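Ligand-bound model needed. zinc ion.
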Amino acid sequence: EALSLPRYKIHMKMNLDQESPGFQGEETITFINGEEIILENLYLRLYPNGHKTYGNGSLNLIKVLVAGREVHPVLTVEETVVEVPLQEPLPPGGQVKLEVEFEGEISKDFAGVRFNYGVYNYTQGVMTLANWYPILAVYDDEGWNLDPVYGWGDAVYSDVGLYEVSISTPAKTVVATSGFEVPGKSSQNGNATTHFYVSGPTRDFFIALSRDFQVLKREVGDTVVNCYFLPGKLAVSRAALEVSATALEVFDRLFGLYPYVELDVLVLPLPFTGGVEYPGIILLSDGLFSDLDDTISRSVVAHEVAHQWWYGVVGSDVIDEPWLDEALATYSSALYIEETLGKTCFEGVLADWQERYTRARAAGTCASITSPVTSFTSNSDYTPIVYYGGALFYHALRERIGDEAFFEGLREYYRQFRYKIATTEKLLTLFEEVSGEELDDLYEEWLFAEGIIILLESKNLLFEEG
Ligand SMILES: [Zn+2]
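Prediction:
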């Protein structure tokens, strides 16, 4: 099965010039048709062109070759979708090589928009690069997934691939990536250094760079946790590293082992979000831990670490079924609190989420927990329903089937869908199998009922009683 993973080989050259930060890249993608149909086209995604959570930078194609011959792809969906015509239809099991030249411009200082996550950005000498290279779109039951970028939730739905990435930077630049650096392979050329990275099976390849990064390290089992931060942020970074390392230990034990040799934790200026997850790397706001004992900051860190299991290793369609990774990452953060701070603190966290969920329902948000990203209008209705409502579902499930079946179910979910794409249906079936119980009533009540019906029912109840 490993043979059918797409392989990305990329060279990129960074330009950290403060006036116009950006990069040039050359990429070779070796794609094997793992579907049961003949493919006429392939699709690549240029996510930063969707702006919104990416800010106002861009990612531009210069040249595309298919099997050595230049083609002229069609760009659609706000230039985030590239339709690459194949000269010859690709049968199941067939292989094709794409060569792509591209360049990117990075937005500066969050481009002044509120829903900018700061993930394709240059500020205070730090460059963050999410989705900086053309990545293959996912082909699934619905065909090709070519959704636009929205102003809330996550944008990237991708299959795992294997990466070899070389990055040329000005000398003395500290680089953090989703992969790990091949020891002894970096080379010096005048004032530039080229670093070489490889990855295990991973859904994405995130990069951050700065000349000013300082680093703290901690070992957890066979994994090194590296914390990158800017001068003046030592206290928050120590706290972030401590919680990340402990969360890694807790989740290794509860769900199954984290598969990579490194986990990078970046503590960055992120004014509009508490944290963001990428495979092998998490971004945390340096505004966290203003109180070092703060439970909410701990939950945010544990949530992003949990995404390594739920989203990183177990993939899902983040547009159509965003609750699959978000609800479980959120409930996992409560499990971290339960394991480290005890039952009372855990119950306090659940009570807080219950209140936020109830308030969103009372405000008229009727989308069910399992709704697609498009059923919401912003993070203010998306988060309480999908994250908190979804986490409360997991708690109700645990109370119904008991701890043994619940944790067995989570471990089995992690094992069965490792490096694959899970779906709501498969997850729910798995918990029925593991517990040996029929759970349709619980699923219907929590996951599929539209909120407005619940609200009307509770009002009727009040009228009847009153
Ligand atoms: Zn999340």
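The chain has three domains: 1-212, 214-308, 323-465.
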